[in-house]
Amino acid sequence: MFAIEVDRMFDGERAVSGGALVTVDEMRIVDVAPRGAQPPESCEVTRFEDATLLPGLIDSHVHLCCDSGPGALDRLPEFSKVELAAIIEDALRAHMAAGVTTVRDLGDRGWAVIDWRDRNRSNVALPTVLGSGPPITSPNGHCSNMGGEARGVEQLRQAVVERAERGVDIVKIMASGGLMTPGTDVARPQFSVDELMAVVTEAHARGLRVTAHAHSLDAIKDALAAGIDGVEHCSFMTESGVVVADDVVADLVSTAIPVCPTIGLAPGTVFPAELVELLRKVGMTWDAAARVYGGLHKAGVRLVSGSDGGISPAKRHGILPEAVIHLVEGGVSTVDALATATCIAAESCGVADRKGRVSAGFDADLLVVGDDPLGDITALRNVQAVFVRGTRRV
Questions:
Q1: Are the C-beta atoms of 114 and 85 separated by less than 8 Å?
Q2: Which of 105, 119, 177, 304 is least buried, going by the fewest C-beta atoms within 10 A?
Q3: Are residues 333 and 205 both part of a single domain?
Q4: Tens-digit pLDDT profile for residues 192-211
Q5: How far, in Å, CA of 212 to CA of 161, rounded?
Q6: Residues 361, 223: one domain?
Q7: Which domain holds residue 372?
Q8: How much helix, strand and coil, in percent to the nearest 5, is found in the chain?
């Protein structure tokens, strides 16, 4: 048993004035008391001066099989299973160093992440892993080299069955093309509403949620019509640029479907000229994207934070704090932005009973940062300590 004492705390939902004394025993939080409270007898107390305690962050959208290098998605077929396992563990260490204690992988190759998760369920040396397995995509569609190609209602239903049998935590489907796969169109859907609905129906019958990669406005509309449970990126792209449609925003608000913007970039990022040109054509910059998602939040859309970590040097593993910072730059309050990577992310990932809060009975996944991220969100970059299920790892 041990305790942590800090001057400030964000409990996953709100700021707690006056700081806290948090007691941990056997991987779980057993008590949260005011700073200065008497700790249990024989309990060692570690005090962090001028620091803030938060729940360990949750990155709702990563790709652990990708090594953060140039062309990371394209190079996936080059790696053996042993090499992929090493890449996964390196990725998890990078996330942990940034204060992330739970990740949701939304696209592996050949079940590498799901297999790693199954071998390491009791591993407290690295963050908790949730996963979708290979994303379902159309033939030659976005991320087809991960192995999840399917077309037509029956093939799509069988794809969901396979994922259920593998024990995935969520089903991921590529409802539109993607920026990182040549030959696919981010502004167009990859599946019909009937096909998406078949995936949702089969998944729900097996107790699984479905989240849709959807840059295209039409793909977002189709996913909502099919009863999807979450939207990744949600970029509102059309052939003529970005169009934030009021009726779609209203649907996102009324259904309370979580939207994961996947904004945030590694500091010092310089984009390749071809990507700059592509973004120019679709009328999107990273600053403009932050404002779009700030507007969605103001309208009442439920946002969660994810980094898309691993797919490129700009999107390397361990940049979730940058995604949260980017939301604040787009107009989201610091409290609400922090919640997108803690309690709201836990709900979206299906682990709200044990993750995302500093509360008695929850996993002792804890982050200590210097200074006050509620006053200056960039304090998230100043990691002082990370605890994974009660064991200090950073």
A1: no
A2: 119
A3: yes
A4: 999 999 999 999 999 999 99
A5: 17
A6: no
A7: 2-55+357-392
A8: 35, 25, 45
